Design the sequence.
DNA sequence: ATCGGACTAACGAACGGTCGTTCGTGTACC
DNA sequence: GGTACACGAACGACCGTTCGTTAGTCCGAT
């Protein structure tokens, strides 16, 4: 009756394959028989290891969320705001780049969770977002950033980060660490105090 | 046999409802009967006005792509790079904010198009992206921008813009024009020549 | 004025197919 | 002889779509 942890490794393989399929084709566009086939199984055999399709989605989304949180936990709260935000940015991108499939599922399929689980994810996402926002606000307070609306600035930063799963290719020529630094530098500079309009702009 | 333009207005209503449903629930999570119900119809009645579900998706995605292209066409090619990129950014965001539903479908459901149509969209998207990239490269050439990789910088900018459909709320308090300006200012500053590290950062 | 017919638009029923899932069975291994 | 695991068959539900039919409307002819 309790249908979990029969063999420990099998469930992990299923999660991996589900991550790849959900990530590339999308949750609703992936059938259970299709998933089973990727593991050289029949659809019915999956249910000895998992509770159902939605639980599979939940496991992936939950892990991805946990990975983001864990990475942000490594960034000390008492760092100066600019450096703190820089580390939050690079940590966030590293999670995306390392687990592209899970990140894709996290960003594009979390809406298909059940109402209750979706509500929980929204809460955790908002909490996570607050860390970025606090870094931005602290930076405004100490003068290293200059933005009119810290909430908007936070959304701009996170948008830039989160869309990267759409085009980043782990097999491509871009080195993830260099990419993360480029991201951080560009975004940090975007928030930094504006000193002077260099060429004679009218504004 | 020719199943189009029976009544001109009806098809438009269907497209509107489909945009809202596909945009919020997703393409594969929306059934034709569900779409019909939103129009107070039965599923079978839709087929007097449309060819099929995928043609509906195509119509929406195609229009969204055309809207982006048309908006970018309004930006003169001979503007100085920084101003040109600024106008490209605000034009792009205006399209997203004005047609949130269609933008959502465009960004998250274009993958579900048929192979051929998907290929066409990729080509058009790449072409569109080139306009942003050219503005960035020209800005690097004339010294107004300073980035190590113009391709990456372009992707960062477009990522920041494109993810906005996920959180922007037309009914919310944020004024779209102010928001677009905040976006442009932040991103432009991120690309601009770096003058000096203001406070004594070690880097 | 009224009938007949063409046209528009929506309908119910049904098609073949696929969906996620359940269940009883078979089979290898300890 | 349990136990772990995979299987085929089947379930009810829903999918996108087709088709024959039925109303309603407009219009020219009677």
Sequence:
């Amino acid at each position: 009756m309790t249908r979990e942890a029969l063999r420990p490794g099998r469930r992990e393989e299923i999660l991996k394959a589900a991550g790849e399929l959900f990530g590339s084709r999308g949750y609703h566009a992936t059938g259970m028989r299709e998933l089973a086939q990727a593991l050289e199984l029949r659809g019915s055999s999956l249910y000895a290891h998992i509770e159902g399709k939605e639980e599979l989605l939940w496991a992936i989304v939950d892990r991805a969320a946990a990975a983001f949180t864990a990475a942000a936990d490594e960034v000390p709260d008492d760092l100066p705001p600019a450096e703190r935000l820089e580390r939050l940015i690079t940590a966030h991108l590293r999670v995306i780049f390392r687990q592209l499939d899970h990140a894709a599922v996290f960003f594009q399929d979390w809406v298909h969770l059940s109402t209750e689980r979706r509500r929980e994810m929204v809460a955790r996402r908002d909490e996570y977002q607050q860390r970025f926002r606090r870094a931005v606000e602290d930076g405004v307070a100490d003068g290293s950033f200059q933005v009119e609306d810290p909430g908007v600035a936070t959304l701009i930063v996170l948008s830039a980060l989160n869309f990267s799963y759409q085009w980043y290719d782990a097999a491509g020529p871009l080195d993830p660490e260099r990419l993360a630094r480029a991201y951080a530098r560009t975004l940090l500079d975007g928030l930094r105090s504006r000193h002077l309009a260099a060429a004679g702009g009218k504004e």
